[in-house]
Amino acid sequence: MSTFSFAEATAWQCAGCNRPLEPAEVKVTYLNSVFTVELMVCPGCGFVLVPESLAVGKMLEVEQLLEDK
Amino acid sequence: MDTERPIQLLSSTESLCPVCLKRLQAVREQQGDTVFLVKQCSEHGTVRTPIWRGALPFSTWLRPKKPSAPRQAFSAIKDGCPFDCGLCPNHGQHTCTALLEITGRCNLRCPVCFADAGDQAPETDPSLVQIGMWYDRVMAASGPCNIQLSGGEPTMRADLAQIVRLGRDKGFDFIQLNTNGLRLAEQPGLSGELKAAGLASVFLQFDGLSRHTHLALRGRDLRESKELAIRRCVEAGLAVVLVPTLVPGINTHEIGAIIDYGVRFAPTVRGVHFQPISYFGRYPQPPADADRLTLPEVLLLIEAQTDGAVRADHCAPPACEHALCSFHGNFFIDAAGRLTPLGSGRAACCSTGETPAAIPTALEGREKSVRFTARQWSLPMADSACNCAGQPAPPQDDFDRFLARARTHTFTLSAMAFQDVWNLDLERLRGCCIHVVAPDGRLVPFCAYNLTSNQGRPLHRRPVRP
Q1: Are B433 and B95 in contact (CB under 8 A)?
Q2: Cβ of residue A36 closer than 8 Å to a chain B Cβ
Q3: Least confident among B56-65, B103-112, B124-133
């Protein structure tokens, strides 16, 4: 269970649904591993916003540790 | 030979006659669950050597790459593979790891030595100038790659730290020491001195946990020295990879125990790298089939001796060298010391239906492998998620929880099947990425460099001049 949230107020809206994003628990899967984190999500279609800082920070580090040669 | 079961011809390659070292056509053929390399010399007869045995299907163990020639070839094509090594322009893979044999001296007399090391005089050691030239040649041929200082026993040299520093100054970031560990154990300051010079990792000969294994393979009970060497590396902050030479009937029952032992010393011990025995030197009679151990047999022994925690399908053929040369698996050590697989094992790389355009180049696989090996076989950085008071920050989410452990507690299991004159496959040799730097600065694939005829006549290695 995640105890930390990446969800934060954002000006981004879902272009497809034209709705503001809301915080939600998201399962991130990569190479058989599943991570539960809270991110901003479109309540209509489920589209998830991954902040750049997360994508090039912790998420990248996790990817590298999971990847084999 | 089993004459009852049908023989299926799988594919063709080239090899050498074990007696006269003439190049021969060879085929890979399957009978039952064994694949043999078969070749015939018009003068010295037919040789049939098992190269793959067991339930894991040979046909599924694939990892194709498009060959990629050396940046700079130091030899021309004249007599063909494997006689022109240097590397020649027809070589298909760049250097992932370059071996520098910095001494012929050794403080052990192992019956299973690749390098035929012994008690030469210190004056026979290559000079720092010559070693500098070797580093330059590796850089010119292949660019930055991983370096392994080897021998002989490299710790016999008093200037070993200088040799490490020289390599770092030349632009090689990952330098590993291939050692029996005796001097690391005997000299309390040595591991710290080498770490300070820029050494990243110790490739520690480690054949097992029983006295019998040590006596059979090394002639001495080295158990206490090995553990002391590891403890010295813990103190110095040097990574260690345990490297067992596996010999059927001697230590193959100790595979699980060696893995458990390595895990106990994580994160200093970064993994276990198994080397099934290959036969160099004088063997008038070919080694018996029962004296060989193939990669799938090692995988099944790991599976059986880890109570299924590690399965054969957690391990994959290599991205860098030829698929038939090695396997590796990457694991996470949980808080209870159990191994669980990271990544997807074979599912990640063993697709067999690639279009030719989708097959990666050898260079791509080599880049991946250089990076992975340097990261995994080095000691991880201290926890980077620290607060200013010097206390680790508490884990916050699933990524943090995973990173907090996985930054330090990953563990690799791997094996490399070296080739000797009986099972030599020139297709594999052309894909080789482990290159020994010969005294004259040529780069020679490891198996070609150590290869001898059945009378002990070397193909490339020259005796040390007095």
Answers
A1: yes
A2: yes
A3: B103-112
State the pLDDT at residue B386: 46
| Type of residue at B226 | K
User: What class does CATH assign to B97-351+358-379+403-450?
Assistant: alpha beta
Residues contacting B93, CB < 8 A, separation 6+: B65, B67, B68, B320, B321, B362, B366, B430, B431, B432, B433
**Pairing of β B201-205 and β B239-243:** parallel
* A26 at B interface, C-beta within 8 A: no
Cα dihedral sign, B370-B374-B377-B380: negative
Nearest-neighbour CA in chain B from A13: distance (Å)? 25
The number of C-alpha atoms within 13 Å of B77 and in the hemisphere containing its C-beta is: 6
Whole-number Å distance between alpha carbons of B167 and A19: 58
What residue segments make up the domains of chain A, in order of their start?
13-66
- d(Cα B330, Cα B271) in Å, to the nearest integer? 9
For B132-172, write each residue's pLDDT tens digit: 999 999 999 999 999 999 999 999 999 999 999 999 999 99
Residue-level pLDDT at B382 = 52
Q: Would you call A61 an interface residue with chain B, using a CB distance cutoff of 8 Å? A: yes
Asked if B341's CB is within 8 angstroms of A69's CB, the reply is: no
Q: Is the pLDDT reported for residue A22 higher than 80?
A: yes
Scanning every residue of chain A, which has its alpha carbon at the shortest distance from the alpha carbon of B321?
A69
Q: What is the pLDDT of residues B30-46, one digit of tens each?
A: 999 999 999 999 999 99
CATH architecture assignment, domain A13-66: Roll (3.10)
Q: Is the pLDDT of residue B271 over 50?
A: yes
Cβ <8 Å between A36 and B398: yes
In total, chain A counts a number of residues equal to 69
What pLDDT does A30 receive? Answer: 86
Rounded distance between C-alpha atoms, residue B378 and residue B269, angstroms: 9
Q: How many CB atoms lie within 10 A of CB B381?
A: 8
- Give the one of B373, B396, B403 whose C-beta lies nearest to A62's C-beta: B403
Q: Could you say which residues from 326 to 365 on chain B have a Cβ atom under 8 Å away from some Cβ of chain A?
A: 328-330, 341-345, 348-349, 365
- This complex has an ipTM of 0.83
Least confident of B173-177, B341-345, B396-400: B341-345
